[in-house]
Amino acid sequence: MWLLLRALLAQWAVRHLVLRSFGSLLLLLPLAAILKAVGFPLLILLGILALPLMLALFVIGLPVLLVILVGAVLLAITGLVVALGMMVLKIALVVCLVLLAVRAIRVLRRRDC
Question: Which domain holds residue 60?
């Protein structure tokens, strides 16, 4: 009897664990799709911007470690600029939408008078 009870509890625990993992997977898949859609173009942009300068530094003859360090700093600065640009774009989008809504309300009020 104890063996049957332990087997049933073990099956219940395994089912619960599997269902919980599928539930978290349902939450994480859309987030992964969004990051994939945004992250790859951003990575391509960073690579395109830093690659010519890194090649120029290699041609000049700087040590490899210094070139990689300069490339990493350039990638970090470009990432910062893109992140700040996205933040400013979000704020500007909200402000523009509010201004457009106010303008539309004013136009509608003028037509009613």
Answer: 2-112
Angle between helices 64-112 and 2-60 (to 10 degrees): 100
Please give the model's pTM, rounded to 2 decimal places: 0.45
- For residue 71, the Cα-to-chain-centroid distance in whole angstroms is 22
From CA 3, how far away is CA 20, in angstroms rounded? 26
pLDDT digits (tens, 9 = 90+) for 23-55: 666 777 777 777 777 777 777 777 777 778 778
pLDDT in tens, 5-24: 787 777 777 777 666 766 66
Domain count, the chain: 1
| DSSP per position, 53-110 | HHHHHHHHT--HHHHHHHHHHHHHHHHHHHHHHHHHHHHHHHHHHHHHHHHHHHHHHH
Q: How far apart are CA 50 and CA 46, in angstroms?
A: 6
Place of tokens 């830093």: 50
Residue 111, phi then psi, degrees to nearest 5 = -70, -30
